[in-house]
Amino acid sequence: MTIRDDDLDTPPQINIVPMIDVIFAILTFFIMATLFLTRSEGLPVNLPNAETSTLTNSREQRLTVTVDEQGKVFLDRTLIAIENLAAQVRLQKGNRTEILVVINADRSVEYGTVITVMDQLRTIPGVKLGVATKRE
């Protein structure tokens, strides 16, 4: 009786190279997808430079007031009249004790417009003000 190679039971093998390729493709997809899921607050404006600019990553509730180059005021990307700003921030604040309001003002905006916005926000108790800048 002769033993043929076909008769021998070869141990099963799992080729993992295609599985690794699929895993890396999925990982790449998730990395690229999360890069585009960053939260955009406010509208893009030409921020002034500041050497002492710091990045805050606080977890507290935050609102963004944007003043664009034409002097238009936006509350979280919604156009709003300066006179109605305090009332809208009060509504957004609700019954929270504190809320951070970041002012994104274009560098070409008149100083008086930014002061008017800040004055409106200071009338609300519990509002902490921040001014957005970019590091030189």
Account of the protein in words:
The protein is α/β, with parallel strands linked by helices and 136 residues long. The chain has a domain at 49-135: Nucleotidyltransferase, domain 5, CATH 3.30.420. Helices cover 29% and strands 21% of the residues. The protein contains 3 helices and 7 strands; from the N terminus they run αββββαβαββ. It has helices spanning 17-35, 85-93, 111-122, and strands spanning 49-50, 62-67, 73-75, 78-80, 99-105, 127-131, 134-135. Strands 4-3-2-5-6 form a 5-stranded mixed sheet, covered by helices on one side. Strands 1-7 form a two-stranded parallel ribbon. Strand 3 (73-75) and strand 4 form a beta hairpin. The protein is elongated, with a radius of gyration of 28 Å. The N and C termini lie far apart (86 Å). The mean pLDDT is 81.
What would you say about this model in short?
By secondary structure, the chain is an alpha/beta fold. Helix content is 29%, strand content 21%.
